[in-house]
Design goal:
The protein contains 29 helices and 18 strands. The radius of gyration is 32 Å and the shape is globular. It has four domains: 28-104, Cytochrome c-like domain (Cytochrome Bc1 Complex, Chain D, domain 2), CATH 1.10.760.10; 115-131 and 317-360 and 385-448, no CATH class; 142-300, Jelly Rolls; 527-726, no CATH class. The protein is α+β, with helices and mostly antiparallel strands. The strands form five sheets. Strands 1, 2, 4, 6, 7, 9 and 12 form a seven-stranded antiparallel sheet that branches. Strands 3, 5, 8, 10 and 11 form a five-stranded antiparallel sheet that branches.
Length: 787
């Protein structure tokens, strides 16, 4: 079909008229005509078209360029640059930008229950507040007492006291020390176990002789009055190999759940009785670790108090916003808290006399070797005992509710559960169950208008994930938590506690996506030495690197990105081509700054975000975009599996990714992801430095466009690290993520300028990480409290 030449002037005129109308139309009008049918009238998304809400972090200029290049979909010519700019400005101000989203949907502080971690930490500190707490001791080994034995008298005569740093002993057919008999001797090791991570730990005891392992038990005085048979009945061993059966080495393994950041009483009793050979070895396997002999620095000669560990499994906390929060209340959660309360009530009843400050259940037996027998104990006064147990119940409820009880609450939660016909253990269990199932415990912010005890409660949750200690509650009662300076003083004190260190460690596990790195498996043919033990070393290496910087005097966030060293042991140094440390331990090893730049180039992360025998610029780029640069990424509209065998084998990984993501739809996100991932292409699938890929020179150069539309040239990891260290949005992203982890809320709910003020304080402190956490905790603790 042909067009008459007489119609051409009419068509051209009409076209000019339309363009003139376009110029006069507003961005809102253009959006409603060309965009709303796919994105919704308010950018909320449309099912089966673009169902994701239309929001992000691009600037107006960057958004206009994207719209001009890609919209309307498959009809890009319908909208020119001027129209794209108008639409971009309208979208940005109406619903796209963070400020627009906050205006349309003002954030609020959500009522939240305790998270799983907060529940366990709070119960441990609630029960632990009734026993004397010991500070962590030197990480040098266990206190050892060597005894000469005779017959069934395992500890006839003490011959030596010393400290042993490694729990692996092979005595052969001789004595452990000259003063002992080679045929019969015994040893008692005692002290504490230092645990870093929360999770299941495995312990393996190997011996041809007799041995018992006690972990997290109440030891009377922690001294040599411990009697094998009596206390074995009262304090069940974790592993009991007390009865020897022949010459063969026996192995026994047990698994136990422990809370990280705490110390646990540990005791190992061993004896040899006429067997030909003597030996004993204690090994452990920490979460994410491998089997290894228990040794310093994980053991200490210092005493420790038993920790109440809730081992009941909980359903996962809600992580839909990128951080764990106590927002979901389900039947499974209700059942879990009930089982946990029953578990705790049983332990409290078993330890009641100790926790309530009464005399021990059994009199001391025998005579102390270093003095006369103890004097006879006075008769028990039942009325005084009952009163003391009730007083314990009042204290327990008050500490659980984080404030003093009213007289009515004392009656409801404690007094009415005691009676002449009710066994005291049953009464105490009822009290514990009622207290731990109460909203006053499970929902820390219940109770009306915020006050001094609210500040104490919040501060303990933000820094410890736990309950206020005695010093915090006393300060609240005195009105000494009402100004920022007062709160900062207590926060600084609390930061020195191991619980704060454990909370910060949890944050860095989240920030660096440790959970995604749980299973790092590589092709054994391509990387035969990259085994489970090396992966465990890599994890420890990264944790040590972060600890070194966070707990240094400077505590400088930028050094996490810019440091040119790795913390390595000899095995890692050999694998990564570095100078091996002189001793078999982890030490900082310096690299060429062009090859290593902080966490960007740590092999643990490089290996975690890579395929089993090749790199993955996409996985690395997504991690850098979201976690390190703090940029928003929407889920991909469709999942495209990377299938390496579908590409020409001569192509480099960069060439493959470029081919895979070349469409306009993909590049909406991959224009950000790919340049960041390509900048790390000098590192292979296990994080080793390389200069070639498929026998071609590695190309690590890329051009990265910031949210403001600025184009930055990146020549590799060092350039990327410098950009992230100096970038305001990356710094704000770090502040935001730490706020989420500490407070379990969004910063905007505490005021529109909260994030800005915290970032300014962070910068003023020299980007001091610990000071940032203190400032976050102070800001959130005082919110809404009259000062």
């Amino acid at each position: 079909m042909t067009i008459s030449r007489f119609l051409i002037p009419f068509i051209l005129t009409a076209g000019l008229t339309l363009r003139a109308e376009d110029a006069a139309r507003t961005g809102e009008a253009i959006f409603k005509e060309m965009c709303a049918k796919c994105h919704g009238e308010k950018g909320e998304g449309v099912a089966d078209k673009h169902d994701e809400p239309l929001y992000g972090e691009r600037s107006i200029a960057s958004l206009a360029k994207l719209i001009d290049k890609t919209m309307p979909e498959d009809e890009e010519e319908k909208l020119d640059a001027e129209g794209s700019a108008k639409v971009a400005e309208y979208i940005f101000n109406a619903f796209y930008s963070p400020s627009a989203r906050e205006r349309n949907h003002p954030p609020r502080i959500d009522l939240a229950r305790l998270t799983n971690r907060q529940y366990r930490e709070s119960v441990a500190d609630l029960i632990g507040s009734f026993v004397e707490q010991q500070p962590p001791g030197p990480r040098t080994g266990l206190r050892a007492e060597y005894f000469e034995s005779e017959g069934m008298n395992k500890k006839k005569r003490p011959v030596l006291e010393m400290e042993d740093a490694v729990m692996d002993f092979n005595f052969g057919d001789g004595p452990p020390v000259d003063a002992c008999s080679a045929e019969q001797f015994s040893i008692a090791w005692q002290g504490s176990l230092i645990v870093e991570d929360t999770g299941f730990y495995e312990f393996r005891l190997s011996t041809p002789n007799g041995a018992r392992l006690y972990l997290n038990r109440d030891f009377r005085d922690g001294d040599r009055n411990f009697r094998d048979d009596t206390d074995a009945r009262r304090q069940p061993a974790l592993i009991d190999e007390w009865v020897s059966s022949g010459e063969k080495v026996r192995e026994h393994t047990e698994r136990v759940f422990l809370i990280g950041g705490r110390i646990y009483p540990l005791r190992l009793d061993y004896f040899k009785f006429k067997e030909k050979l003597g030996s004993v070895k204690l090994e452990w396997k920490a979460p994410h670790g491998v089997w290894e002999v228990l040794r310093a620095p994980h053991i200490s000669p210092a005493r420790a108090a038993r920790v109440t560990v809730v081992s009941t499994p909980f359903p996962p906390d809600d992580g839909s916003l990128g951080y764990e929060r106590g927002s979901a209340v389900s039947k499974s959660w209700h059942e879990a808290t009930t089982k946990a309360a029953v578990e705790t009530a049983g332990e409290v009843a078993d330890r009641l006399r100790l926790l309530a400050g009464l005399r021990d259940n059994e009199p001391r037996r025998g005579r102390r070797r270093d003095g006369p027998p103890p004097p006879p104990e006075p008769p028990v006064d039942p009325a005084a005992t009952a009163a003391k147990i009730k007083e314990f119940g009042h204290k327990l409820a008050g500490r659980a509710f984080r404030r003093p009880l009213t007289e009515d609450e004392k009656a409801i939660f404690v007094d009415r559960h005691f009676g002449d016909s009710i066994p005291v253990e049953v009464s105490v269990k009822r009290v514990v169950l009622l207290v731990l199932k109460s909203p006053r415990f499970l929902y820390p912010e219940t109770g009306g208008k915020p006050n001094d005890t609210t500040v104490a409660t919040r501060l303990a949750l933000h820094l410890w994930d736990s309950l206020p200690d005695a010093a915090l509650l006393e300060a609240a009662q005195k009105g000494e938590l009402r100004t920022p300076d007062q709160v900062r003083t207590h926060a600084a004190r609390m930061m020195a506690d191991p619980r704060a260190k454990a909370k910060l460690k949890e944050f860095f596990h989240q920030w660096l996506s440790f959970e995604e790195a749980e299973e790092i498996n590589k092709d054994r043919k391509a990387y035969p030495d990259f085994d489970e033990a090396l992966v465990a070393d890599l994890r420890h290496s990264l944790e040590s690197f972060v600890d070194e910087i966070v707990w240094s005097e400077a505590s400088d966030f930028r050094q996490l990105l810019l440091a040119d060293h790795l913390v390595l042991n000899p095995r890692l140094a050999k694998f990564y081509g570095a100078a091996a440390p002189a001793e078999d331990k982890f030490v900082p090893v310096k690299f060429d700054p062009a090859q290593r730049a902080g966490i960007f180039t740590h092999p643990y992360l490089l290996a975690a975000f890579a395929y089993h025998k090749s790199t993955s610029p996409i996985h690395r780029g997504v991690f850098l975009t979201r976690n390190i640069l703090g940029r928003f990424l929407k889920p991909p509209p469709m999942a495209i599996e990377f299938m390496d065998d579908k590409f020409d084998p001569s192509l480099t990984m960069r060439e493959k990714v470029t081919e895979l993501t070349k469409t306009a739809t993909c590049m909406a996100c991959h224009s950000t992801i790919n340049p960041l991932g390509f900048s790390l292409e000098n590192y292979d699938a296990v994080g080793r430095w390389r200069t070639t890929d498929q026998e071609k020179p590695v190309n690590a150069f890329s051009e990265y466009t910031t949210p403001e539309g600025e184009v930055i040239q990146l020549h590799g990891a060092r350039d990327l690290a410098r950009h992230a260290a100096d970038n305001r949005e990356a710094q704000r992203g770090f502040v935001r993520q730490m706020f989420h982890h500490a407070v379990k809320q969004t910063p905007a709910a505490y005021g529109p300028d909260t994030l800005t003020r915290l970032h300014e304080s962070f910068a003023k402190s020299g980007f001091h990480i610990r000071s940032l956490l203190t400032e976050i905790a102070t800001t959130a603790a005082l919110h809404g409290v009259a000062q």
